[in-house]
Structure formats: structure tokens, C-alpha cells
Design a protein that fits this description.
Nucleotidyltransferase, domain 5; two-stranded antiparallel ribbon; 5-stranded mixed beta sheet; 2 domains
Length: 150
């Protein structure tokens, strides 16, 4: 607390009580800089070994629509029992868009071959998103045997 004395009358000093906030602002700026520098360092990835486990099958009321990507990167659309021939990008968007207009809550499953380029699967997902699909899922194969924990 800074004290200053007024020089009103000689011999009489008047106490002036003011809080000098300049040092507090300096401290706050230093703390802000410290937090700004350390926060990105705290969010860096940490190497974690995740457990492997077989998952339960998902219970689905309606028949889902499945977008399959084969080894060659061709798209196939399975709607119920109907299986399509290879489709172009625009045909995928049109057909899935028609399904989404009729049933907006339809689950769309993406099924990609293990040998297909990841870019083709990502492109297929962007096509589904363009068509208005909100619920997406991946079809995977359950592992034969879950390894024991160390």
C-alpha cells in the first residue's frame, strides 16, 4: 500500500491510502505468459499402450446402409438387401442423399478393405458427409484371440 502525504499545512500530514495496481498488473502479465507457454506443452501426446478387447455387436433396429470400399478403391453401396455395382463419387452422394431425406437418422456403416488406401476411405466418408449422413460407423472384424495383459 503506497502512502503519500499531502502538503496542506505545515506540520500536519494527511494520510492518502491508495492501492498501487501497477505491480499487480506486472505480476499478472508474467503469470499469463507463463501459462501461455506451458499450456501447449502439457497437451502434447503421451505414448500409451491401449488394451485390446473384443467388443459387443451393435444392436440396430433398422437395416443400416453400408458403403464398401474394395481393394481397388471402388465404392459399393448396400441398402438393405440391395447391393450395387461400382459407383462414382456423385452416385454415392445422390443415393445416400435420397436415403437421408427419407430417414435422416439412418446409420451409415463404412467397410474398407485392409489393402485399400486410407485416402479412399476418407474420401468415402466425406462423400457421406456431403450427402447429409450424421451417424457413421466402421465395420471391423473381431480379433481371433485377445492377447493377455503383461
Amino acid at each position: 500500500m503506497a502512502m503519500s502525504y499531502s502538503s496542506g499545512r505545515p506540520g500536519k500530514r494527511r494520510l492518502n491510502a491508495e492501492i498501487n495496481v501497477v505491480p499487480y498488473i506486472d505480476v499478472m502479465l508474467v503469470l499469463l505468459i507463463i501459462f501461455m507457454v506451458t499450456a501447449p506443452l502439457l497437451t502434447q501426446g503421451i505414448e500409451v499402450e491401449l488394451p485390446q478387447a473384443a467388443s459387443e455387436d451393435v444392436k440396430i433396429d433398422d437395416e443400416p446402409v453400408t458403403l464398401s470400399v474394395d481393394r481397388k478403391g471402388q465404392y459399393f453401396l448396400n441398402i438393405g438387401e440391395e447391393r450395387s455395382a461400382p459407383l462414382s463419387d456423385e452416385e454415392v452422394v445422390q443415393r445416400v442423399g435420397a436415403v437421408m431425406r427419407n430417414k435422416p437418422e439412418t446409420l451409415i456403416l463404412v467397410e474398407g478393405d485392409t489393402a485399400v488406401d486410407y485416402g479412399k476411405v476418407a474420401n468415402g466418408m466425406s462423400l457421406l458427409q456431403r450427402a447429409g449422413a450424421a451417424k457413421l460407423g466402421f465395420v471391423t472384424k473381431a480379433p481371433d484371440k485377445v492377447p493377455a495383459r503383461k
